[in-house]
Amino acid sequence: MALIEPVKQKIEQPGTTKTRSANLRIWHWLNVIAISGSLITVLINSTLLKSRQQAPLVQSELAKNGAGVTLDQARAAVHVLSDKVWDIHVYFGYALVALLLFRLLAEFFELADQKFIITLKKAWQQFNNTKKAREKTRHELFVKSIYVVFYLLLLTMVLTGLCLAFEKELPFSSSMQHTIKEVHGFCMYPILLFIVIHIAGVILAERKDGKGIVSDMINGG
Fold it and tell me: Which of 14, 108, 137, 150 is the most buried (most CB within 10 A)?
């Protein structure tokens, strides 16, 4: 589990605490809100508003109040509520699109030692060049690699989500809708895994030599 702990100090400058720009911190916490909202809407529709399970309950409750409806009508009612939740899911998806674009643009304006691509390159160079403290450099490179995978997953989810949202406007989307939906849905699981790993790593770091890493993501480090 030690491999997933975020690195608080700069590997190339031991004793120096990493700094995090305002752009990165704003993006991080807004991204937490957008991803959480997106996942919560999926959870609601896959449990509370699943028409096959909830339609009989709706039919039964309406019957108790003197309103007789068929099972199909009850399913239609649940489906309307489910569509409303999916509309909210789409809005969270648009927020993720905007945040991903913001992250890409912000990368160009970061200080050199805070650019993700540069820190990834430095981590790779440090790993190759360092004979001593190889464990720390391997740790840094591993953490950066996880973030690369996360960004790729987020990009895939955003692109497939846009294809589903603009199915009528995109000529290829209709014929590939099933595949696109499958890919979009699959991306949720590794992103959930990343979230679990990320939170576990932060907790471990807070209990060891990375104490204060959460407050650093709030005030900049």
Answer: 137
What's this model's pTM, rounded to 2 decimal places? 0.78
Distance CA 88, CA 125 (A): 44
Quote the CA–CA distance of 38 and 137 in Å, as a whole number. Answer: 34
Backbone phi, then psi, for 15, in 5-degree steps?
90, -10
Cα separation of 124 and 12, whole Å? 11
Q: What is the dihedral of CA 158, 42, 31, 151, to 10 degrees?
A: -40
Q: Residues 24-39: pLDDT tens digits? A: 889 999 999 999 999 9
Distances (CA, A) of 128 to 139, 199, 218: 13, 28, 32
The DSSP output letter for 182 is: H
